[in-house]
Amino acid sequence: MIPNRKIRCAKPRCGDVDRGSYMVPGVLVDPASISILMVSEAAPPDPSDYFYARGSPLFQRTTVLAFQDAGADVSTSRDILRLGVYLTTAVKCGKKAYAIQNETVDACSLLLEEELALFPNARVVLLMGDVAIRGVNAIAKRSGEPRVIPWGSTYKLRNGEYSFRGMRALPSYLQAGPSFFIEKSKRRMIAEDIRSALDAAGA
After folding, report:
1. Cβ(181)–Cβ(62) below 8 Å
2. What are phi and psi of 90, to 5 degrees?
3. What is the CATH number of domain 3-201?
4. Is-contact 170 158, C-beta < 8 A?
5. Helices 58-69 & 184-201 angle (0-180, nearest 10)
6. Tens of pLDDT along 119-168?
7. Low-confidence ranges of the chain (pLDDT < 50)
8. C-alpha separations of 198 from 1, 108, 168, 201 in Å
9. Secondary structure E strands in the chain
10. What is the CB neighbour count within 10 angstroms for residue 182?
11. CA–CA separation, 51 vs 98, rounded Å?
12. Comparing C-alpha atoms, which of 77, 94, 99, 111 is closest to residue 42?
């Protein structure tokens, strides 16, 4: 299966993102092999920085470092995929400003819901940052389900027990992009959360 052949955006252009950088993973993946879904914030403004782009894209470099920090022997996004971890974003277009409007997250959560449903064997969903958390909470709200992750600081929430449609839900910090290099304490916590996900999924 190639996810971007399954997931299509039929919504009008959202004002705070760049439709020209719309991106859903175009990588060949066996849905049955995926045990962990890692949801980051938004697609990069430059598609050549996306997880599965050719060469050494930024999202791949920072995500690989995060997995290496967690003790995983990986060098590329495809190595991570072979561990059973599927990488995607809550918002499918690159953002134009620092923040992303709730309306955009809500609209894109329709696509995210379809995308996550492609992987019936997933046991863990890693929510990397506030936008990913908001996206999954929007899915739950639309279906009349309780919030997956409660309001509050990620620092205080990340050791809680949460679930989403049969999966363990782990809130963490954004690992994709230049912000990964800024705070060493967050980098350590990201590694801990990835390790928890790998252990929970038996990867």
Report:
1. yes
2. -70, -40
3. 3.40.470.10
4. yes
5. 70
6. 999 999 999 999 999 999 999 999 999 999 999 888 888 889 999 999 99
7. none
8. 23, 27, 12, 5
9. 17-18, 36-42, 85-91, 94-95, 124-128, 162-164, 167-172
10. 8
11. 20
12. 94
Other Cβ atoms within 10 Å of 45 Cβ, number: 15
Tokens 């990340």 -> residue: 158
Please check whether residue 109 is in contact with residue 90, taking contact to mean a CB–CB distance below 8 angstroms.
Answer: yes
Name 203's Cβ contacts closer than 8 Å, sequence gap at least 6.
Answer: 35, 36, 83, 84, 85, 197
Contact 36, 109 (CB under 8 A): no
Tokens of 154: 């990620």
In the chain, what are the domain boundaries? 3-201
Token pair 């990620």 in the structure block, residue:
154
Rounded CA separation 176/172 (Å): 12
